[in-house]
Design brief:
55% of the residues lie in helices and 14% in strands. By secondary structure, it is α/β, with parallel strands linked by helices. It folds into 3 domains: 5-161, no CATH class; 175-239; 243-360, CBS-domain. Strand 8 (316-317), helix 11 (322-332) and strand 9 form a beta-alpha-beta unit. It starts with a strand and ends in a 10-residue tail after the last helix. The protein binds zinc ion.
Protein backbone atom coordinates (compact mmCIF):
# COMPACT_ATOMS: atom_id res chain seq x y z
CA UNK A 1 0.00 0.00 0.00
CA UNK A 2 3.05 2.26 0.24
CA UNK A 3 5.04 3.08 -2.84
CA UNK A 4 5.07 6.47 -4.46
CA UNK A 5 3.90 9.45 -2.45
CA UNK A 6 4.39 13.15 -3.02
CA UNK A 7 5.43 15.75 -0.51
CA UNK A 8 2.80 18.45 -0.43
CA UNK A 9 3.71 20.50 2.60
CA UNK A 10 5.49 20.53 5.94
CA UNK A 11 3.74 21.31 9.18
CA UNK A 12 5.93 21.91 12.23
CA UNK A 13 8.79 20.21 10.40
CA UNK A 14 6.78 17.07 9.62
CA UNK A 15 6.52 16.23 5.90
CA UNK A 16 2.98 15.52 4.76
CA UNK A 17 2.83 13.19 1.80
CA UNK A 18 -0.01 12.23 -0.47
CA UNK A 19 -0.16 8.78 -2.02
CA UNK A 20 -0.41 8.77 -5.81
CA UNK A 21 -3.69 6.80 -5.74
CA UNK A 22 -5.27 9.91 -4.26
CA UNK A 23 -5.52 11.45 -7.73
CA UNK A 24 -7.65 8.54 -8.92
CA UNK A 25 -9.78 8.86 -5.83
CA UNK A 26 -11.17 12.18 -7.04
CA UNK A 27 -11.91 10.77 -10.47
CA UNK A 28 -13.63 7.84 -8.82
CA UNK A 29 -15.88 9.91 -6.55
CA UNK A 30 -16.70 12.24 -9.46
CA UNK A 31 -17.74 9.12 -11.41
CA UNK A 32 -19.86 7.86 -8.48
CA UNK A 33 -21.51 11.30 -8.18
CA UNK A 34 -22.25 11.36 -11.87
CA UNK A 35 -23.72 7.85 -11.82
CA UNK A 36 -25.98 8.82 -8.91
CA UNK A 37 -27.33 11.62 -11.07
CA UNK A 38 -25.77 14.55 -9.21
CA UNK A 39 -25.67 17.97 -10.84
CA UNK A 40 -22.27 19.34 -11.88
CA UNK A 41 -22.31 21.78 -8.98
CA UNK A 42 -23.08 18.84 -6.71
CA UNK A 43 -20.09 16.91 -8.05
CA UNK A 44 -17.78 19.90 -7.53
CA UNK A 45 -19.09 20.22 -3.97
CA UNK A 46 -18.49 16.49 -3.47
CA UNK A 47 -14.83 16.80 -4.56
CA UNK A 48 -14.37 19.87 -2.38
CA UNK A 49 -15.93 17.96 0.48
CA UNK A 50 -13.50 15.05 0.01
CA UNK A 51 -10.65 17.56 0.15
CA UNK A 52 -11.95 19.12 3.38
CA UNK A 53 -12.48 15.67 4.89
CA UNK A 54 -8.88 14.76 4.18
CA UNK A 55 -7.78 17.99 5.83
CA UNK A 56 -9.63 16.65 8.89
CA UNK A 57 -7.66 13.41 8.53
CA UNK A 58 -4.38 15.36 8.34
CA UNK A 59 -5.36 17.31 11.49
CA UNK A 60 -6.12 13.97 13.19
CA UNK A 61 -2.65 12.65 12.32
CA UNK A 62 -1.05 15.92 13.43
CA UNK A 63 -2.84 15.41 16.73
CA UNK A 64 -0.89 12.15 17.17
CA UNK A 65 2.38 13.56 15.86
CA UNK A 66 2.46 16.77 17.89
CA UNK A 67 1.46 14.97 21.09
CA UNK A 68 4.21 12.39 20.45
CA UNK A 69 6.67 15.24 20.05
CA UNK A 70 5.83 16.41 23.57
CA UNK A 71 7.25 13.09 24.78
CA UNK A 72 10.35 13.39 22.63
CA UNK A 73 9.08 11.02 19.91
CA UNK A 74 9.74 12.27 16.39
CA UNK A 75 7.48 11.63 13.41
CA UNK A 76 9.04 10.51 10.13
CA UNK A 77 6.12 11.66 8.02
CA UNK A 78 2.37 11.66 7.60
CA UNK A 79 1.03 9.77 4.59
CA UNK A 80 -2.45 10.36 3.29
CA UNK A 81 -4.07 7.77 1.03
CA UNK A 82 -7.70 7.13 -0.01
CA UNK A 83 -8.07 4.60 2.82
CA UNK A 84 -6.98 7.10 5.45
CA UNK A 85 -3.92 8.63 7.00
CA UNK A 86 -1.02 7.37 9.03
CA UNK A 87 1.53 9.27 11.12
CA UNK A 88 4.71 7.20 11.08
CA UNK A 89 6.28 7.70 14.49
CA UNK A 90 9.97 6.83 14.72
CA UNK A 91 9.42 4.89 17.91
CA UNK A 92 6.66 4.17 20.42
CA UNK A 93 6.99 5.54 23.93
CA UNK A 94 7.58 2.82 26.53
CA UNK A 95 5.26 4.32 29.15
CA UNK A 96 1.65 3.16 28.64
CA UNK A 97 0.31 6.51 29.80
CA UNK A 98 2.18 8.31 27.01
CA UNK A 99 0.99 5.83 24.39
CA UNK A 100 -2.53 6.32 25.68
CA UNK A 101 -2.41 10.09 25.36
CA UNK A 102 -0.81 9.96 21.90
CA UNK A 103 -3.50 7.52 20.71
CA UNK A 104 -6.36 9.58 22.12
CA UNK A 105 -5.03 12.83 20.61
CA UNK A 106 -6.09 11.82 17.06
CA UNK A 107 -9.79 11.16 17.67
CA UNK A 108 -9.78 14.11 20.09
CA UNK A 109 -9.05 16.41 17.14
CA UNK A 110 -12.10 15.07 15.26
CA UNK A 111 -14.13 15.47 18.40
CA UNK A 112 -13.13 19.15 18.57
CA UNK A 113 -14.02 19.66 14.89
CA UNK A 114 -17.39 17.93 15.37
CA UNK A 115 -18.02 19.96 18.51
CA UNK A 116 -17.34 23.28 16.78
CA UNK A 117 -19.49 22.25 13.80
CA UNK A 118 -22.26 21.00 16.07
CA UNK A 119 -22.38 24.20 18.11
CA UNK A 120 -22.10 26.39 15.00
CA UNK A 121 -24.87 24.52 13.17
CA UNK A 122 -27.18 24.61 16.16
CA UNK A 123 -26.66 28.27 17.01
CA UNK A 124 -26.28 29.89 13.61
CA UNK A 125 -28.38 27.86 11.17
CA UNK A 126 -31.79 26.27 11.21
CA UNK A 127 -30.45 23.40 9.11
CA UNK A 128 -29.96 20.96 12.00
CA UNK A 129 -27.08 18.52 12.51
CA UNK A 130 -27.98 16.04 9.79
CA UNK A 131 -28.00 16.43 6.00
CA UNK A 132 -31.40 16.31 4.37
CA UNK A 133 -32.78 14.98 1.09
CA UNK A 134 -31.68 12.04 -1.06
CA UNK A 135 -28.47 10.65 0.51
CA UNK A 136 -27.28 9.60 -2.97
CA UNK A 137 -27.25 13.22 -4.11
CA UNK A 138 -26.56 14.90 -0.81
CA UNK A 139 -24.32 17.63 -2.28
CA UNK A 140 -26.86 18.89 -4.79
CA UNK A 141 -28.15 20.86 -1.84
CA UNK A 142 -25.43 23.34 -0.74
CA UNK A 143 -26.41 23.73 2.94
CA UNK A 144 -25.79 19.96 3.41
CA UNK A 145 -22.02 20.54 3.28
CA UNK A 146 -21.37 21.28 6.97
CA UNK A 147 -23.86 18.77 8.44
CA UNK A 148 -22.24 16.03 6.31
CA UNK A 149 -18.85 17.12 7.60
CA UNK A 150 -20.23 16.90 11.14
CA UNK A 151 -21.55 13.38 10.52
CA UNK A 152 -18.34 12.13 8.92
CA UNK A 153 -16.15 13.51 11.71
CA UNK A 154 -18.38 11.61 14.12
CA UNK A 155 -17.96 8.47 11.99
CA UNK A 156 -14.17 9.00 12.07
CA UNK A 157 -14.25 9.18 15.87
CA UNK A 158 -16.30 5.99 16.18
CA UNK A 159 -14.29 4.08 13.56
CA UNK A 160 -10.98 5.04 15.17
CA UNK A 161 -12.15 4.00 18.61
CA UNK A 162 -12.88 0.41 17.55
CA UNK A 163 -10.54 -1.51 19.90
CA UNK A 164 -8.52 -3.30 17.21
CA UNK A 165 -5.06 -2.68 15.80
CA UNK A 166 -4.19 -0.69 13.71
CA UNK A 167 -7.00 1.61 14.82
CA UNK A 168 -6.34 4.06 17.65
CA UNK A 169 -8.83 2.15 19.79
CA UNK A 170 -6.51 -0.87 19.72
CA UNK A 171 -3.65 1.24 21.07
CA UNK A 172 -5.85 2.87 23.69
CA UNK A 173 -7.09 -0.54 24.84
CA UNK A 174 -3.54 -1.95 24.92
CA UNK A 175 -2.21 1.05 26.87
CA UNK A 176 -4.99 0.71 29.46
CA UNK A 177 -4.30 -3.00 29.93
CA UNK A 178 -0.51 -2.36 30.02
CA UNK A 179 -0.84 -0.18 33.09
CA UNK A 180 -1.91 -3.20 35.06
CA UNK A 181 -0.57 -6.30 33.28
CA UNK A 182 2.50 -5.14 31.35
CA UNK A 183 2.93 -4.67 27.63
CA UNK A 184 3.26 -8.30 26.55
CA UNK A 185 0.04 -9.59 28.11
CA UNK A 186 -1.76 -6.35 27.20
CA UNK A 187 -0.76 -6.68 23.54
CA UNK A 188 -1.87 -10.30 23.53
CA UNK A 189 -5.36 -9.50 24.77
CA UNK A 190 -5.69 -6.38 22.65
CA UNK A 191 -4.59 -8.33 19.61
CA UNK A 192 -7.03 -11.17 20.37
CA UNK A 193 -9.94 -8.77 20.72
CA UNK A 194 -8.82 -7.09 17.48
CA UNK A 195 -8.86 -10.44 15.69
CA UNK A 196 -12.30 -11.31 17.01
CA UNK A 197 -13.60 -7.97 15.74
CA UNK A 198 -11.81 -8.54 12.43
CA UNK A 199 -13.47 -11.95 12.00
CA UNK A 200 -16.85 -10.34 12.75
CA UNK A 201 -16.17 -7.71 10.03
CA UNK A 202 -15.23 -10.45 7.63
CA UNK A 203 -18.31 -12.60 8.30
CA UNK A 204 -20.67 -9.62 8.34
CA UNK A 205 -19.14 -8.39 5.07
CA UNK A 206 -19.69 -11.77 3.37
CA UNK A 207 -23.21 -12.03 4.80
CA UNK A 208 -24.21 -8.58 3.55
CA UNK A 209 -22.27 -8.79 0.29
CA UNK A 210 -20.16 -5.84 1.45
CA UNK A 211 -16.76 -7.08 0.35
CA UNK A 212 -14.90 -3.92 1.34
CA UNK A 213 -15.89 -4.63 4.95
CA UNK A 214 -14.57 -8.21 4.56
CA UNK A 215 -11.32 -6.84 3.16
CA UNK A 216 -10.99 -4.44 6.11
CA UNK A 217 -11.54 -7.49 8.33
CA UNK A 218 -8.62 -9.32 6.72
CA UNK A 219 -6.42 -6.22 7.03
CA UNK A 220 -7.29 -5.71 10.71
CA UNK A 221 -6.74 -9.41 11.46
CA UNK A 222 -3.24 -9.34 9.99
CA UNK A 223 -2.38 -6.00 11.64
CA UNK A 224 -3.39 -7.33 15.05
CA UNK A 225 -1.27 -10.46 14.56
CA UNK A 226 1.70 -8.42 13.33
CA UNK A 227 1.52 -6.10 16.34
CA UNK A 228 1.60 -9.05 18.74
CA UNK A 229 4.45 -10.75 16.88
CA UNK A 230 6.51 -7.56 17.03
CA UNK A 231 6.05 -7.24 20.77
CA UNK A 232 6.77 -10.97 21.26
CA UNK A 233 9.96 -10.70 19.21
CA UNK A 234 11.09 -7.67 21.26
CA UNK A 235 10.49 -9.57 24.48
CA UNK A 236 12.20 -12.68 23.24
CA UNK A 237 15.28 -10.77 22.14
CA UNK A 238 15.51 -8.79 25.36
CA UNK A 239 15.08 -11.75 27.67
CA UNK A 240 16.76 -14.73 26.00
CA UNK A 241 20.51 -15.31 25.97
CA UNK A 242 23.00 -16.67 23.49
CA UNK A 243 22.86 -19.98 25.35
CA UNK A 244 19.31 -20.47 23.95
CA UNK A 245 20.40 -20.47 20.32
CA UNK A 246 23.94 -21.76 20.77
CA UNK A 247 24.94 -24.49 18.35
CA UNK A 248 27.60 -26.50 20.19
CA UNK A 249 27.59 -29.11 17.43
CA UNK A 250 29.40 -27.38 14.59
CA UNK A 251 31.99 -28.20 11.98
CA UNK A 252 35.14 -26.10 11.68
CA UNK A 253 36.98 -25.98 8.38
CA UNK A 254 40.77 -25.82 8.16
CA UNK A 255 42.39 -22.81 6.66
CA UNK A 256 44.53 -24.84 4.24
CA UNK A 257 41.81 -27.11 2.95
CA UNK A 258 40.53 -26.69 -0.60
CA UNK A 259 37.18 -24.94 -1.08
CA UNK A 260 35.72 -28.19 -2.45
CA UNK A 261 35.52 -29.46 1.12
CA UNK A 262 33.60 -26.40 2.29
CA UNK A 263 31.25 -26.74 -0.70
CA UNK A 264 30.62 -30.40 0.24
CA UNK A 265 29.86 -29.49 3.82
CA UNK A 266 27.47 -26.74 2.79
CA UNK A 267 25.67 -28.96 0.31
CA UNK A 268 25.00 -31.51 3.00
CA UNK A 269 22.57 -28.85 4.06
CA UNK A 270 22.75 -28.58 7.83
CA UNK A 271 25.38 -25.88 8.21
CA UNK A 272 25.83 -22.98 5.84
CA UNK A 273 28.38 -20.77 7.56
CA UNK A 274 31.59 -21.99 9.15
CA UNK A 275 34.38 -20.91 11.45
CA UNK A 276 37.87 -21.36 10.03
CA UNK A 277 40.67 -22.67 12.23
CA UNK A 278 44.40 -23.22 11.76
CA UNK A 279 46.35 -26.37 12.64
CA UNK A 280 46.50 -25.33 16.30
CA UNK A 281 42.74 -24.96 16.48
CA UNK A 282 42.89 -21.16 16.66
CA UNK A 283 40.13 -19.30 14.85
CA UNK A 284 41.44 -17.40 11.85
CA UNK A 285 38.19 -16.12 10.48
CA UNK A 286 34.78 -17.13 9.22
CA UNK A 287 33.52 -18.52 5.94
CA UNK A 288 30.14 -17.06 4.98
CA UNK A 289 27.52 -18.89 3.00
CA UNK A 290 27.82 -16.33 0.16
CA UNK A 291 31.56 -16.90 -0.20
CA UNK A 292 31.08 -20.65 -0.57
CA UNK A 293 28.29 -20.10 -3.06
CA UNK A 294 30.59 -17.86 -5.06
CA UNK A 295 33.38 -20.47 -5.13
CA UNK A 296 30.88 -23.08 -6.25
CA UNK A 297 29.47 -20.84 -8.96
CA UNK A 298 32.95 -20.15 -10.32
CA UNK A 299 33.81 -23.87 -10.04
CA UNK A 300 36.80 -22.79 -7.97
CA UNK A 301 37.33 -26.08 -6.12
CA UNK A 302 41.10 -25.95 -5.83
CA UNK A 303 41.59 -22.61 -4.07
CA UNK A 304 42.29 -22.75 -0.37
CA UNK A 305 39.83 -21.68 2.26
CA UNK A 306 42.29 -18.95 3.35
CA UNK A 307 41.65 -17.12 0.06
CA UNK A 308 37.90 -16.92 0.72
CA UNK A 309 37.63 -16.43 4.48
CA UNK A 310 36.67 -13.19 6.13
CA UNK A 311 39.25 -12.40 8.83
CA UNK A 312 36.92 -10.14 10.75
CA UNK A 313 34.87 -11.76 13.48
CA UNK A 314 33.93 -10.93 17.03
CA UNK A 315 33.83 -13.59 19.70
CA UNK A 316 30.99 -13.24 22.21
CA UNK A 317 30.07 -14.99 25.43
CA UNK A 318 27.02 -17.10 26.30
CA UNK A 319 25.62 -14.40 28.55
CA UNK A 320 24.99 -11.94 25.71
CA UNK A 321 21.37 -11.00 25.18
CA UNK A 322 19.85 -11.93 21.83
CA UNK A 323 19.04 -8.31 20.92
CA UNK A 324 22.74 -7.49 21.27
CA UNK A 325 23.60 -10.41 19.01
CA UNK A 326 21.02 -9.40 16.41
CA UNK A 327 22.46 -5.90 16.40
CA UNK A 328 25.94 -7.33 15.81
CA UNK A 329 24.63 -9.41 12.89
CA UNK A 330 22.91 -6.39 11.38
CA UNK A 331 25.61 -3.78 11.90
CA UNK A 332 28.64 -5.86 10.94
CA UNK A 333 26.99 -8.08 8.36
CA UNK A 334 28.18 -11.27 10.08
CA UNK A 335 26.42 -14.54 9.44
CA UNK A 336 28.19 -16.59 12.09
CA UNK A 337 29.70 -15.64 15.46
CA UNK A 338 31.96 -17.87 17.61
CA UNK A 339 30.90 -18.14 21.26
CA UNK A 340 33.45 -18.42 24.04
CA UNK A 341 33.27 -19.47 27.64
CA UNK A 342 36.27 -17.69 29.19
CA UNK A 343 38.94 -18.74 26.65
CA UNK A 344 37.38 -21.91 25.33
CA UNK A 345 35.17 -21.92 22.26
CA UNK A 346 31.88 -23.62 23.10
CA UNK A 347 29.91 -23.19 19.91
CA UNK A 348 28.56 -20.77 17.33
CA UNK A 349 25.53 -18.61 16.75
CA UNK A 350 24.46 -18.20 13.16
CA UNK A 351 21.96 -15.90 11.51
CA UNK A 352 19.73 -18.72 10.23
CA UNK A 353 19.38 -20.38 13.63
CA UNK A 354 18.59 -17.06 15.28
CA UNK A 355 16.00 -16.17 12.64
CA UNK A 356 14.24 -19.52 12.81
CA UNK A 357 14.28 -19.32 16.61
CA UNK A 358 12.51 -15.92 16.42
CA UNK A 359 10.06 -17.21 13.79
CA UNK A 360 9.23 -20.35 15.77
CA UNK A 361 8.51 -18.36 18.92
CA UNK A 362 6.44 -15.60 17.34
CA UNK A 363 4.22 -17.57 14.97
CA UNK A 364 0.84 -16.21 13.99
CA UNK A 365 -0.83 -18.99 16.03
CA UNK A 366 0.96 -17.91 19.21
CA UNK A 367 -1.87 -15.54 19.86
CA UNK A 368 -4.31 -18.39 20.26
CA UNK A 369 -2.17 -20.99 21.98
CA UNK A 370 -2.81 -21.32 25.68
CA UNK A 371 0.18 -22.39 27.70
ZN1 LIG B 1 -5.35 7.94 14.63
Amino acid sequence: MLGLSFNILRVAGIPIKVHWTFGFFFLWIAYIGNKAGMTNTGIIRLCLFALVLFVCVVLHELGHALTARKYGVKTKDIIISPIGGVARLLQMPEKPKQELIIAIAGPAVNFLIALVLGIGLTLFTNQGLLPIGDPQRVFDYGPNFLPTLFVLNTVLIIFNLIPAFPMDGGRIFRALLSMRWGKKIATRWASMLGQIIAISFFVLGIYRGDYILSLIGVFVFLSAAAEYRMVLADFLLQNQKVADVLRSDFTAVFIDEPMSHAIDLRNRGIEKDFVVVDEWGQIQGVLHDEFIAEAEKNKDLESLVREYLSPSFEPISQSWRLDEVLQLFQQKGYSIIPVYNTDRMVGVVDRDTLNSYIRANTSIWQNWSFK
